[in-house]
Design a protein that fits this description.
Structural class: mainly alpha
Largest sheet: none
Shape: flat
Helix content: 55-70%
Number of strands: 0
Distance between the termini: 39 Å
């Protein structure tokens, strides 16, 4: 991939210099169109897709060979975002009409418990997205984030909460640290405590990293402003942020 990018950059520079004509002489020859980049091999393309998708297909290999790696990445960045849908808020404690009964696993109450108070439907949609949706690269990045910022399906067992968390991973897959913090604050400010907890669980490893790098002050101030934590104060040996910069948060 890096070789392709460098070759493209070198081609652009050479074409630009040729167009300048050195001293601007009217007798300079017209620039020639550079030859197209060599088509990647099926093996290299399959290896690339094995890392960028949830499964290599012959159709995808042919497409990437036709458009090239960079164009494929541009397509993936612009692809519609997969979404977990069909979930709505449920209280943390399941009502009596939505509880599982081993003796009657197919009755309405057991089905309600399966769909609302387990990860069954979320996991089902995960595989549907992985097999059929076009935003394969985003899904792979979101899945990788879910393995790094792990949220317990035992503590967050409400389906709507985990679905919302997965949607956030998809939305922020190509985002940044500020976007992650903003999601935590927005969920908490709107009273969506389950989603805020899930978002915070995702951000916590980054905050811990910031702490090791002595950058915790900004993270704590941002979260205190959003009401996620009560105080943005830091402990010794860190000094408080200067009042002249405090307004930035």
């Amino acid at each position: 991939m890096q070789n392709i990018i460098w070759r493209l950059a070198a081609t652009v520079i050479l074409v630009t210099l040729a167009a300048c004509g050195g001293g601007g002489s009217s007798g300079s020859p017209a620039p020639t169109t550079p030859p197209p980049a060599a088509q990647s091999s099926a093996q290299d393309t399959a290896r690339f897709l094995d890392q960028a998708t949830f499964g290599v297909t012959a159709t995808d290999v042919a497409h990437v060979q036709s458009v090239g790696f960079n164009a494929y990445l541009v397509e993936q960045l612009a692809a519609p975002i997969s979404q977990y849908t069909g979930f709505s808020y449920t209280p943390h404690t399941a009502p009596t009409t939505c509880q599982y009964h081993a003796a009657t696993p197919t009755d309405a109450s057991s089905i309600c418990s399966r769909d609302q108070y387990s990860l069954f439907q979320v996991q089902r949609q995960f595989f549907m997205h992985a097999l059929s949706d076009s935003d394969q690269l985003r899904q792979r990045v979101a899945f990788a984030l879910s393995q790094i910022f792990v949220t317990s399906g035992i503590e967050i067992y409400e389906a709507y909460g985990m679905a919302d968390y997965q949607n956030m991973l998809l939305k922020d897959a190509f985002g940044n640290f500020r976007d992650l913090l903003q999601d935590v604050i927005d969920h908490h400010a709107a009273g969506r405590r389950t989603e805020a907890a899930a978002a915070y669980a995702r951000v916590l490893p980054l905050i811990n990293y910031e702490n090791r790098q002595c950058g915790l002050r900004a993270a704590k101030i941002a979260m205190a402003e959003g009401g996620v934590i009560k105080s943005g104060a830091v402990r010794h040996p860190l000094d408080p942020i200067h009042p002249g910069r405090r307004h930035l948060f």
